[in-house]
Predict the structure.
Amino acid sequence: MKVIIIGCGRVGAGLAKNMSLQGVDVVVIDMNPKAFEALGPTFKGRTITGIGFDQKVLADAGIEKADALAAVTASDEANLVAARTAKTIFRVPRVAARVYEPRKAKIYRRLGIQTISPVTLGIERLTAMLTYSQLNVERVIGAGQVGLVDVDITQRLDNKSKKDLEIPGEIEVVALTRNGKTFLPNSATVFHQGDLLHIMITSSGKDKLSKITGS
């Protein structure tokens, strides 16, 4: 797999190092050559100094054979141009961009570009911490009306099943992790201690789930 990362700040450098450790062929582009120092001596990928949305720079990075591209510079505009160039001109299969402004993130998505908004993620996480404080929240959806929570199966829930936990329209078990493997449980699946349930709940169902699980 070949991945191009535009921007070698904290996110770009961290992403590059993680993917390189996984054996991915990584190329990092940044205007500032000193930024590459953040990659450390163990980084095995390539680095290119230049403007991330310059087509010649992208060609030098091997974009025509790239499987994915991430634009994570400090500029929303630069990320948009780079992502659109990769998507529309070079037909890169998977393109993602970091966007600070949530409204811009919506525009990106309409253009078919996947986005990550630190502002939106921060708001969602803080909302989850404040409104679902007694539950292990993975994330919230919308303005906090729906949450995805993780629930450990303890002795209290041992040998229970979906029907013992679910409340239509408020609580729904969507997945189960057992011995490191995650799957979709059915009505006949029995939960055991050590299992981890992934549950979607509405804001009105969080107190009910807490009572059922003893959280």
About this structure: The radius of gyration is 21 Å. The mean pLDDT is 88.
